[in-house]
Amino acid sequence: MNMKKKVILFSIVLLIILLTGTTLAWFSSADSKINTFKTGTVELEILEPGFTDIDDVQLGTYDKNIKIKNTGTGTTYVRVRLIPQWSEPSLPISNVQLNLDNDDWLLHTDGYYYFKYYLKSGQDTSLLLNSVTFTDLGPEYENKTFTIKVVAEGVQASNGAWRDVWGLTELPFKGDRQWKP
């Protein structure tokens, strides 16, 4: 075969390869999607509606409202510990009564009050604490300050997270119930 025929044959083969490649490109397609999975957050806010500090405590009852708000994005179980104390640690707190008149909360043996329902994002619990009553204030309480430390904890309501986070073998209330005020 002479050189001229080889060049023509090579050109034809090359042209067929180029046309086939171009044709395949005409009939192909590409597409992509990004799938995002974002976890929820557990965040709480302690609400004390209408409370202002009291400077001259006397015997009697004072309004003290406490409830908890789910400010996270996930569904959340809530528990709260109330720690009452006088500024003088040796003074007993037996003369102070925390008035918790609410069936939505349960005092468990671990010292926490458990809200019996899970909260969706943006929901508040019902009131945990309604008021505080001082029953006896002898001279040893003069110029002393009474405080209530409120420790609120939340945990995601799904997948039994309360077992790992709170170390419980079972919830102290019937779980998987949404709060419907």
Quote the beta fraction.
Answer: 25-35%
Name of the CATH first level of the domain at 44-166: Mainly Beta
Helix fraction by DSSP (H/I, runs of at least 4): 10-25%
Largest pleated sheet: 4 strands, antiparallel
Q: Can you write the helix and strand succession as a string?
A: HEEEEEEEEH
Q: And the CATH topology of the domain at 44-166?
A: Immunoglobulin-like
Rg:
34 Å
Parts with pLDDT < 50 across at least 5 consecutive residues: none
Structural class: alpha+beta
Query: What is the overall shape?
Result: rod-shaped
Q: State the helix count.
A: 2
Short summary of the structure?
17% of the residues lie in helices and 29% in strands. By secondary structure, it is of the alpha+beta class.
What key phrases describe this protein's structure?
single chain; 181 residues; alpha+beta; Immunoglobulin-like; 2 helices; 17% helix; 29% strand
Can you put this structure into words, describing what you see?
- This protein is α+β, with helices and mostly antiparallel strands.
- The chain has a domain at 44-166: Sandwich (Immunoglobulin-like).
- Helix content is 17%, strand content 29%.
- It has two helices and eight strands; from the N terminus they run αββββββββα.
- It has helices at 3-26, 161-166, and strands at 44-47, 60-70, 76-86, 96-99, 105-107, 113-115, 129-134, 146-156.
- The strands form two sheets. The chain has a four-stranded antiparallel sheet with strand order 1-2-7-4, with no helix packed on it. A four-stranded antiparallel sheet has the order 5-6-3-8.
- It is rod-shaped.
- The mean pLDDT is 89.
